[in-house]
Amino acid sequence: MEYGIKFIYGFLLPPGLFVTLLAVVSFLLFQKKRRAAYLTGGLMLFMYFSFIPLTGILLVHPLEERYQPPAVPKGDVIAMLGGGATLGTPDMNGNGQLSGSAANRLLTTYRLYRQTRLPIILSGGKVYPDSGVEAEIGKRQLIALGVPRSEIIVEKKSITTKTNARNTKQLLDRFHFHRPILVTSAFHMPRAVLIFNKQGMHVTAYPTDYLVSRKVFLYPGQFVPSNGGTAFTALKEYVGILVSLF
């Protein structure tokens, strides 16, 4: 019963509502304006397949499968890329929190530190006016978890993956590191590795923050439009990879 209600709601609430409205308009136009009906129907199908979870899963899977976290990561420093932060929001020991992706990356970075005792580079600045400074927030939270202040290097000017790579390279040269273990979201890792390599760094990829499960399951919910945005996240990465090749 609950799944049936969710299925219906999926077509009555945005973005599924737009698909439903386009389907109704296409049906009404079909008798008198076939060409307009076909155009409307085509737009409806495009929106439908753009918003169903299955499309996003199929697009994200190749990105997240590209690299696997090594059982014994080898390197001399852990480099974590920022992934968003809120400004001024209450935290247990200060203000500002890392967003979902960045928080997952920080958790993995902390666990890697516990395993390797390697120093940490946090790369991430203030991306938008209402964003927190990602590296500073991450540093405060790592210190609260017990990581010594002296083991954390903050790089707080980067606002893109390209600037992450360029500024991290400067820190590697400054502190004489040569083999960074790169921590970022699994869907973002292929683009990040490509950009870091172009800056002359050969990283050990340690992906985290997976968006989809390893195995694809088919059930009704996979065909109901949602606002998860997984497909658009994947498309952004594919476009970014294409641009980074040139």
UniProtKB/TrEMBL annotation:
Entry protein name: YdcF family protein
Domain called DUF218: residue spans: 76-240
Key words, A-Z: Membrane, Transmembrane, Transmembrane helix
Pfam families in the record: DUF218
Gene3D superfamilies: HUPs (3.40.50.620)
InterPro entries cross-referenced by the UniProt entry: Cell_Envelope_Assoc (IPR051599), DUF218 (IPR003848), Rossmann-like_a/b/a_fold (IPR014729)
Keyword Zinc: no
CDD domains: YdcF-like
Taxonomy, superkingdom: Bacteria
Ranges that cross the membrane: 7-30, 36-60
